[in-house]
């Protein structure tokens, strides 16, 4: 029973005075739209985690995330499609009422358990995981974000249906770099992957991406890089400038959100304006989704742009 969502997404061209002037061809793979309930990169990160759980005979899956987690949302919906019970360990207090991300998860049958930040911090701790296995008797545990080797393996399939398109650079937002690693591992020929980091820091993801590439048997791949300039303050931090950019971009082209796709396109537009891509570059950006989470952020964004 693998009721997989359809994964062929459309590719759209962005025409703007900025791309015209620089001679860069910017196209966007609309993963945010490939399926109404299971869009974005998170399904790809779950795909092999779910098949592994099934092979090991589990019918219940547990994972971790925050209140706006795109990962938990995708797990709830994918679990429902594939007949798994799903359990979420969520950082912090239960919001009342539930936000739309969590309400969707509950509607899909997910059990929510809210834990304090200090308990949540133990999510990689072996003893804590063992106690969860006992508490929920026989659960398959997927790490936060679906960030493991099986997650990256699933992401190596994101671009497969589009290998007949020509692209020199594939750009995508990076939280942990797991998606980037999968994409880089799959790239044909001379194409390169460019990640835009959404968290503040300097080169902290490079080691993790290298580790995943080694585990995916392409340890010699140097076809990727991460740009750390466009976090605008840190994870889920949104500057006024970014808020304005997201609003204008969403009106002109298609909806983006400020956490991932907003920073990706903000960064790309800055790089294109600064002439960082040679004329004639075929740039393919991946819209990794996350539009469900935006529902809870709209009011804050409106305040920043009013
Ligand atoms: C989780 C997420 C990412 C980041 O994926 P990583 O594999 O952690 O780098 C990017 N975009 C969206 C919309 C996400 O939900």
Write the layout of secondary structure elements.
Blueprint: E1 11-14, H1 17-22, E2 25-30, H2 42-55, E3 60-65, H3 70-82, E4 85-91, H4 100-107, E5 111-115, H5 117-120, H6 126-135, E6 140-141, H7 149-155, E7 169-174, H8 178-186, E8 192-197, H9 206-215, E9 224-227, H10 240-252, H11 261-273, E10 282-287, H12 298-305
Parallel strand pairs: 2-10, 3-4, 3-6, 4-5, 7-8, 7-10, 8-9
Antiparallel strand pairs: 1-2
The structure holds pyridoxal-5'-phosphate.
List keywords for this structure.
10 strands, binds pyridoxal-5'-phosphate, about 40% helix, 12 helices, 4-stranded parallel β-sheet, single chain, 6-stranded mixed β-sheet, about 300 residues, alpha/beta
Word description of this protein:
There is one protein chain. The protein is α/β, with parallel strands linked by helices. Helices cover 38% and strands 17% of the residues. The chain has 12 helices and 10 strands. It has helices spanning 17-22, 42-55, 70-82, 100-107, 117-120, 126-135, 149-155, 178-186, 206-215, 240-252, 261-273, 298-305; strands at 11-14, 25-30, 60-65, 85-91, 111-115, 140-141, 169-174, 192-197, 224-227, 282-287. The strands form 2 sheets. Strands 1-2-10-7-8-9 form a 6-stranded mixed sheet. Strands 5-4-3-6 form a 4-stranded parallel sheet. β8 (192-197), α9 and β9 form a beta-alpha-beta unit. The longest helix has 14 residues, at 42-55. It is globular. The mean pLDDT is 94. The structure holds pyridoxal-5'-phosphate (PLP). Pyridoxal-5'-phosphate (PLP) is lined by residues 40-42, 70, 145, 147, 173-180, 260, 288-290. The site of pyridoxal-5'-phosphate has 18 residues, from β7 and α8.
């Amino acid at each position: 029973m693998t009721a997989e969502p359809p994964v062929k997404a459309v590719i759209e061209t962005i025409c703007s005075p900025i791309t015209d002037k620089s001679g860069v061809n910017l196209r966007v793979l609309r993963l945010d739209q490939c399926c109404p309930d299971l869009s974005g990169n998170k399904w790809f990160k779950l795909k092999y985690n779910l098949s592994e759980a099934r092979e090991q005979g589990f019918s219940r899956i547990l994972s971790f995330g925050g209140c706006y987690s795109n990962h938990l949302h995708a797990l709830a919906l994918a679990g429902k499609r594939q007949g798994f019970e799903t359990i979420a360990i969520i950082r912090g207090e239960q919001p009342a009422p539930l936000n739309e991300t969590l309400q969707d998860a509950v509607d899909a049958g997910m059990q929510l358990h809210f834990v304090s930040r200090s308990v949540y911090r133990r999510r990689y701790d072996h003893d804590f995981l063992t106690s969860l296995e006992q508490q929920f008797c026989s659960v398959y545990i997927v790490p936060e974000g679906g960030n493991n080797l099986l997650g990256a393996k699933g992401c190596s399939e994101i671009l497969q249906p589009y290998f007949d398109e020509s692209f020199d650079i594939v750009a995508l937002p990076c939280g942990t770099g797991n998606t980037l690693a999968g994409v880089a591992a799959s790239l044909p020929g001379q194409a390169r992957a460019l990640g835009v980091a959404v968290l503040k820091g300097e080169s902290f993801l490079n080691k993790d991406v290298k580790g995943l590439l080694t585990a995916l048997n392409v340890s010699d791949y140097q076809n990727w890089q991460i740009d750390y300039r466009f976090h605008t303050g840190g994870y889920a931090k949104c500057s006024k400038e970014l808020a304005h950019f997201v609003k204008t971009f969403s009106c002109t082209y298609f909806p983006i959100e400020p956490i991932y796709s907003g920073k990706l396109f903000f960064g790309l537009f800055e790089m294109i304006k600064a002439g960082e891509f040679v004329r004639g570059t075929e740039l393919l950006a991946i819209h990794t989704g996350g539009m469900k989470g935006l529902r809870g952020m709209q009011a804050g964004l409106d305040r920043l742009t009013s």
